[in-house]
C-alpha cells in the first residue's frame, strides 16, 4: 500500500486534531503517541517525525489555541476606539470562543493544570502563560488610542488582562452563567482601564497612610 505523502505541517495539524479527538473520549491520559497516531490514521513513526515527544505535542496544542484565541481578540479590539472598550472586547472575544466549545476548553484548561503539577511538564505551563502575556502585550503595543494614553507599563497591563481572561473563562466553565461572566468582563475592563491611565493607584499598599 502506497501512503499519500503530505507536508509535515499538514501532518502536524492532523495529529493535533487527532489528539483532541482522543482526549475528548478518554481524557488527557488517553493521548498516548500510539493512540494519537492511530486516530490520525498515521504510522507511529509519523508522530515522532512531527513531534519530538508527547510534551511537544501538548505544547503545540496550547500554542494553537493561544494563537486562535488572541487572534479573535485582536479582531474585536481593532474595532474599538478607547481602552476600556478595547479590553472589554478582548475579554468578550476570548469568552465567546470558550462558549462555542466548552468541552474542548475544559480539556485545554486541564492540560495546563496537569502540566503545572508535573515536574517534567511544568515548563509547558510556564511557557504557555508567558506566551499568552507576550501576545497580549504585543496587542496592547499595537493598539493605543490617541485619546486614551496608557501610562501603565504594558507588561503589567498584559499580566492583568491575562489574569482576568483566565479567571472569567474558569468561572464560566464552572457555572455556565452568561450574566455573571458579562458582569465580570465589564468590571475588569473598567478597572484595568482605570489603573492603566492612573497608575499611581497601584503605587501605595492599602495599609500605608495617605501621602500628606
Can you characterise this structure?
With 212 residues, the chain is mainly α. The protein is built from 9 helices and no strands. The protein has 2 domains: 1-52, Arc Repressor Mutant, subunit A; 54-201, Orthogonal Bundle (Tetracycline Repressor, domain 2). The longest helix has 25 residues, at 54-78. The chain starts with 7 loop residues before the first helix and ends in a 15-residue tail after the last helix.
CATH topology of the largest domain: Tetracycline Repressor, domain 2
- Beta-sheet strand percentage? under 5%
Q: Can you name the CATH architecture of the largest domain?
A: Orthogonal Bundle
What's the number of helices? 9
**Count of β-strands:** 0
| Poorly predicted sequence stretches spanning 5 or more consecutive residues | 208-212
Give me the secondary-structure category: mainly alpha
Q: Which descriptor suits the 3D outline?
A: elongated
SSE order in H/E notation?
A: HHHHHHHHH
The termini sit apart by 83 Å
Sheet with the most strands?
none
Q: What is the mean predicted local confidence, pLDDT?
A: 86
Give the proportion of residues in helices: over 70%
Q: What Rg is obtained from the alpha carbons, in whole angstroms?
A: 20 Å
Tell me the name of the CATH class of the largest domain.
Mainly Alpha
Whole-number total of structural domains: 2
List the helices and strands and how they pair.
Blueprint (H helix, E strand, L loop, with lengths): L7 H19 L6 H8 L3 H7 L3 H25 L4 H18 L1 H16 L4 H21 L11 H22 L2 H20 L15
Amino acid at each position: 500500500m502506497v501512503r499519500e505523502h503530505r507536508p509535515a505541517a499538514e501532518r502536524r495539524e492532523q495529529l493535533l486534531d487527532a489528539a483532541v479527538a482522543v482526549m475528548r473520549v478518554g481524557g488527557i491520559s488517553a493521548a498516548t503517541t500510539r493512540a494519537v497516531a492511530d486516530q490520525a490514521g498515521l504510522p507511529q513513526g509519523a508522530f515522532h517525525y512531527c513531534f519530538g515527544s508527547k510534551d511537544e505535542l501538548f505544547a503545540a496544542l496550547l500554542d494553537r489555541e493561544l494563537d486562535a484565541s488572541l487572534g479573535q481578540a485582536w479582531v474585536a479590539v481593532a474595532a474599538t476606539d478607547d481602552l476600556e472598550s478595547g479590553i472589554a472586547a478582548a475579554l468578550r472575544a476570548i469568552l465567546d470562543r470558550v462558549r462555542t466549545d466548552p468541552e474542548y476548553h475544559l480539556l485545554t484548561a486541564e492540560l495546563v493544570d496537569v502540566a503545572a503539577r508535573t515536574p517534567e511538564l511544568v515548563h509547558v505551563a510556564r511557557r504557555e502563560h508567558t506566551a499568552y502575556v507576550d501576545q497580549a502585550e504585543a496587542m496592547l503595543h499595537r493598539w493605543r488610542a490617541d485619546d486614551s494614553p496608557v501610562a501603565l507599563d504594558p507588561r503589567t497591563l498584559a499580566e492583568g488582562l491575562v489574569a482576568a481572561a483566565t479567571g472569567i473563562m474558569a468561572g464560566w466553565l464552572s457555572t455556565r452563567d452568561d450574566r455573571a461572566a458579562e458582569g465580570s468582563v465589564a468590571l475588569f475592563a473598567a478597572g484595568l482601564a482605570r489603573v492603566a491611565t492612573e497608575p499611581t493607584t497601584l503605587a501605595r499598599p492599602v495599609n500605608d497612610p495617605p501621602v500628606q
